[in-house]
Amino acid sequence: MKPEEKQAKQKKKMIRDWLFLGIIIVIVVVLLFVFPAKTDAVASTVQEYFIEMMIILPAVMVIMGLFAVFISDETIVKHLGKTSGIKGIALALLIGTLPTGPLYIAFPMAATLLKKGARVSNIIVFLSAWACIKIPQEMVEFQFLGIEFMALRLILTIIFVIIMGISIEKIITRNDKKISKSKGV
Amino acid sequence: MNVTAVIINGIAVIGILIAFIKNKEKAIESLKMAGKSFIKMLPMVFIIIIAIGLLLGFVPPEQISRFVGDQSGAGGILLVGIVGAIMHIPALLSFPLAASILESGASVTAVAAFITTLTMIGMITLPLEIKILGKKMALLRNGISFVIAILIAFIMGMIL
Prior knowledge:
The complex is a heterodimer.
Chain A: H1 3-34, H2 39-54, H3 57-70, H4 73-81, H5 85-97, H6 106-115, H7 120-132, H8 135-145, H9 147-182
Helix pairs in contact in A: 4-6, 5-7, 6-7, 7-9, 8-9
Chain B: H1 3-22, H2 24-58, H3 61-68, H4 73-86, H5 91-103, H6 108-120, H7 126-133, H8 135-159
């Protein structure tokens, strides 16, 4: 995607989001007009969650911005391309958790790594860690759902993501062997 | 102000200081980027907060717990998981939403299923993932992720 195209698309999405917010506000006003007794409950919840979000979101955004600028895509590709085994999986996990932006920017990185010969298991672990174990996400989860919930989900996710990475690698490499056999290579 | 917020803001401030010492231009660039993403996220933040307000204000806890509470059963969990897989909201905003339904009677299993499928699976980004990484890998990753998300949710429900 060209930068101009991307910008135009993002602008469109922004307008859509604000429009959607406007519609929601209208609905809320009408609803509260019909059920005025609910106003206090809704207002206090909105206020409480608003404060809780605003005391952490700017900081989270700053941390993500710092990592996105200071750790380049090339650094990630360089470090992930050459290691394998347990060390490779651990590194894939660790790099995936760095707060560096949305999942779709990790796809091209993963594709480059695969072309360079990185193991499928590492790439799956890397993508999954990138998607669901980002450090700022964990901090926000801790804030809203508590340490027990966050820690348990984190540990389980790491275990299952590693199992998934190894299984997908087995499935893909077995299939590839079958294909090359049937072609008579 | 609670402890988590203090820690997160502390890390951010220290990060900014280190960044400015190391490379001033890059530091300014990251702050600009942070500002932009914050503004980009803002309407969604308001939408989610209002949705939480309406949910807690209008839907009685008994209704919430009937659908996604302890007695909702495996079907309810699967449904929550599917909703999480389809919904496209920033992961950061799923946590307050999850906390609000947990507060009003949803089970730990349901909430864990929702967050885990929401973050792990991207229905919206799936076409892009297929295009860049191939059909087999993308479908396997998203498919197996759904299964493990449900597993994680049930294990969490059993422990917590």
